[in-house]
Amino acid sequence: MDNSTLAALQQQFGPLSGFDVTTAPYPKHLRSFAEVLLLDSDNLPLTNPEAHFEDPLYKSAGNLFWPDFWSDWVGAGAWPILGLNRTAVQPLLSAGAGWSGRDAESGMLLLDRARWLSVLHWVLWVNTWHDRLYYRHLHGDKDTFALGFALAGAADQYMQVCVPPGGVFRWGPGQLERPAFFHRTMNKMQLGEQPWPAELLTGPLPQRLAKFVAAGPVVD
Question: What's the pTM?
């Protein structure tokens, strides 16, 4: 962000504070860096993101994804089109996702591009199949990263934070850990419109509550 833009934002919305993500290892141009943290434009780091590059999961596997609220959104028709055996591949991907077993979201991800260049080629390839695959059997680019690992023969190397996401609410504080990112997934920012404010941000859901939510309602 250039100084004039930052000054205008400070004048309109200040006081603002945060982390400088324009310098290494955060890419201004992806091709300049081997290891990258990719963030959506409406996804803000709430802690210094340098620490994520030292996460043991990332250090061991060279990739780290964060879970979405949803799970198993890759349509059944996608697997045969891609030449993948769902029965064989999905357990390997799920193992990397931990106990929550959720799909990843692409609002933030860590990737060692030098190590997983083959995966990036497959991700690009999957995203080019518009009408036949992408818009019929997937729910966005977020679904293509795990598939990219599978197509590269590295499904067992796909790694994901196991704790499900928290949320933004307007009532009572929770007994939760400090969150790492604030990704506005609803009520997106639009030119000429004012999104509602985020009055309370939860951290990752506690494991017990997350498992309860994931199980869904109990029907007698």
Answer: 0.70
